[in-house]
Design brief:
alpha/beta
Length: 212
C-alpha cells in the first residue's frame, strides 16, 4: 500500500512518470524501482531520463552522456511501459528537473505527471531549482532505503504540503545497489554480476568504462 496525500483515484487522466538521474551506470535497483511504480501506480508510461550534466555531481567519474543513454536503452529493452528519453541530452547544459517537467507538461498535456526519485533526493527537494514549480507540475514519488525510513519520508512529505507538494511514498524498499559500488568493483576487477543486467555489463567492458 502506497503512502500518499494525493487523491489518485479521482485523477481521470493517463499517468506518465519521469525518472531522471545520472544512471552512471544504470543498475538493477533502478530498474526494480521503475517497475515497482509502473505496477503500483498503473502508469501508462515511465520515461527513464539520463541527465546531460547533473547539477549536483562531480563529472570526474562520469561516463559520457551518450554512453549512459546507451546503457539505459539496453537496460530498458523489452520492459513494458518503460522508455528511455534523450530530452535532457538534446537540451544540453546543466540538467534541471523543473526544465524537463516544463517540457514534458507540454508533450503530455493531457496526462498526470509523476516524478520518481530516491530517498536522498526527496529529502533535499527544497534545495532544487524552482522546487515550487516542480510541485505544481508533478506528483513526487520516493522510495525509502528501508522499512523504517518510509516513516521518515512520510513525515518530511507532510512538511512539504505547505508548498503544495503531492507525494507518493513506496511502502517497501528496493534492492540495495549503488552505482558508486559498481564503478569501484570494475576499477578493482571485481564482479558486477547481478548488479547490472548482462547487456549493460557487456557494454561497460566493450567500451572500457570505469576502468581507472
Amino acid at each position: 500500500m502506497l503512502i500518499t496525500n494525493a487523491d489518485l483515484s479521482n485523477i481521470r487522466k493517463p499517468f506518465v512518470a519521469m525518472y531522471g538521474g545520472s544512471f552512471n551506470p544504470i543498475h538493477t535497483g533502478h530498474i526494480q524501482l521503475a517497475q515497482y511504480f509502473v505496477s503500483e501506480l498503473g502508469l501508462e508510461k515511465l520515461l527513464l531520463i539520463p541527465d546531460n550534466t547533473p547539477p549536483h555531481k562531480s563529472s570526474s567519474a562520469m561516463a559520457s552522456a551518450q554512453h549512459r543513454y546507451n546503457m539505459c536503452l539496453l537496460a530498458a529493452e523489452s520492459l513494458p511501459k518503460i522508455e528511455v528519453s534523450d530530452i535532457e541530452l538534446k537540451r544540453q547544459g546543466k540538467s534541471y528537473t523543473v526544465d524537463t517537467l516544463i517540457q514534458l507538461s507540454k508533450i503530455y498535456k493531457n496526462s498526470q505527471l509523476f516524478l520518481i526519485m530516491g530517498a536522498d533526493m526527496f529529502l533535499s527537494l527544497t534545495t532544487w531549482k524552482n522546487f515550487r514549480k516542480i510541485f505544481k507540475l508533478a506528483v513526487v514519488c520516493a522510495v525509502p532505503r528501508d522499512s523504517d525510513h518510509a516513516r521518515t519520508l512520510s513525515k518530511y512529505g507532510s512538511t512539504l504540503e505547505k508548498y503544495g507538494c503531492k507525494y507518493v511514498i513506496a511502502d517497501e524498499h528496493m534492492m540495495n545497489v549503488s552505482s558508486t559500488e559498481i564503478r569501484e568493483n570494475i576499477k578493482l576487477s571485481k564482479s558486477i554480476n547481478g548488479m547490472v543486467c548482462p547487456r549493460v555489463s557487456q557494454y561497460i567492458y566493450d567500451n572500457s568504462l570505469y576502468m581507472g
